[in-house]
Amino acid sequence: MKLSEWKDIDERFGYDGFLGVRLADGKTEFYVWAPTAESVKLLLYKSYKDVSPYLSISLEKGDRGVWKYVHRRPLKKTYYCYEYTYNGYRNIGVDPYACAVGINGEKGYICKLSELNPNGWDRSTYVKLQKYTDAVLYEAHVRDFSSDPSSGINSKFRGKFKAFTINSSRTPGGKRSCVAHLRELGITHVHLLPVFDYDRLDETNPRAAYNWGYDPENYNAPEGSYCTDPFNPELRITELKELVMSLHEQGIGVVMDVVYNHTYLPESSNLGKSFPSYYYRYREDGKLSNGSGCGNEIASDHAMVRKYIVDSVLFWAKEYKIDGFRFDLMACLDVDTLNEITRRLKELNPNAILYGEGWSAEAVELPPELAGSKVNSAKMPEFAYFNDNFRDAIKGAVFSDSSTGYVSGNYLLQKAVCDGLLGITDWAVNPRQVINYCEAHDNLTLWDKLTLSVGDRNDRDRRKMARLCAALVLLAQGVPFIHAGQEFLRSKPLGDGKFDHNSYASPDSVNSIKWGELDKNYLESEYITGLISFRKAHHLLRMATRDEVMSHSEILPSAEGTIAIHLYDEEEELLIFVNPIPRAKLFALPDGEWRLCVSDYTVSENALAIFCEAVYVPPISVMVLKKF
């Protein structure tokens, strides 16, 4: 659709009222936006299996292109679709606003969401933070989290929403696993890979395949493969709410990974069926723009697409009490849409967290100054962005197995890492806009990357490198982000010395978290637990603005390849020393006595070691001292 065409559509048919299905006063109301359709019919089904509807009803076209129908009795537990006619051709699609769906998302389902709340839901509240930089994010895939038997989760709950409601699970060696482990670790938010209904996975036999979930089908309904009974449209709603409630009870917020940049297949998407061509961007040659790299790109700058995205985010935040949102490929979305999301969401929950990938996969059919990329962060001050510069500086470029980073021998990256520790980038206005990480679901895990890039180093050194990576992330200004299992050296092996770079469709044998590794690598996990606790205890590690950092930090002289940072204010002083070199290095100390708080393997505020004048930092390690 050309610019002039969609601008005209927006002007003539832009609508900001209710869309979807509403049960009220003994009636069932249907509203769907399809301004250029020749006709729209409501198709009602008694079962998810029915091929033909038991009733077909023509909707009435009203103002602003909204078709509506009011049924004079409640149609709860009824399945439905819409039949649209364009240019004489009919196609059947699920209501884009459907909040419940049948198996494989093939039909919408009518229910009253308030009747599906678990016991105690009213008491479940958003997690509160003083500021963004108080957050410690933990990225997990629902299925990966508990699908391995070593999770200690009952077999019928493994890989399901219900696994997050078990607070007492143990590894084979007796260590806390799953949610009990998260509580022990001290993270503030779990970032869940997509839990909306997605395509490319058969919910009737979910174990037959695997998917990360970045293939949107029904944006406002939960994914059925994570439900203990995917054939029950109501149960998937209740079980997802139980997951949120369970984490809230542990003081842990829930961040939802959302994918508003594309749909799986435009020709079969429910958006495309409701209004062909309007929901997507097109190039000058008439072909679909492909900024997502998945074959299409959502036109977020169109008024009714913007409304849809904003409505969807608010729905999840209100109905499921989601604490924050991580946006996939944000540069495919426009600045105005992202700011409207911020404005509306912050009215609902001032503590909501918003962040995402500040890039696109391919060229976007959107002027660069309007794209939600990290270079436009000043235009979107409430959003944070993944700091891929810091990631690559720490461990090496993610698209080259052999590339080494600062911790693994490339000491020329010292300045980039130092800047990362201070939350300084060429795109972020403030540290609160920076998500620091060294591992995520994409690309090799950190341990696999180290195995391939410095496989000639011994296991002890590679473990030290992994600990140093984690320390750099957790001691840096900004918001730390941990990939599930990173804390105990998660790996995704393929066999024959190979590792999975892109495990979006790989089997559980690759993707599942092997909780037995926590038994073997518990000291690594304890170290990260200690660092998280230390970060929470020291406000100097969680400054929110660049002015704060500039006023309360200085870079000290240090040996080539090493880093020395002094953080200070009226309340306390900290020294951060980083030595990636495989031999001990001597660091001069400012005047006074300095207590050891963080060393190679230990984090303690009560260490007896006190230093004056100088200190040796062990090989491939970080040391933090506090003025005594």
UniProtKB/TrEMBL annotation:
User: What's this protein's name?
Assistant: Type I pullulanase
- The gene name reads pulA
- Record domain Glycosyl hydrolase family 13 catalytic: where: 139-535
Q: Which NCBIfam families does the record match to this protein? A: pulA_typeI
Q: What class of enzyme is it?
A: hydrolase
User: What EC number(s) are associated with this protein in UniProt?
Assistant: 3.2.1.41
Tagged with keyword Hydrolase? yes
Which Pfam families does the record cross-reference, listed alphabetically? Alpha-amylase, CBM_48
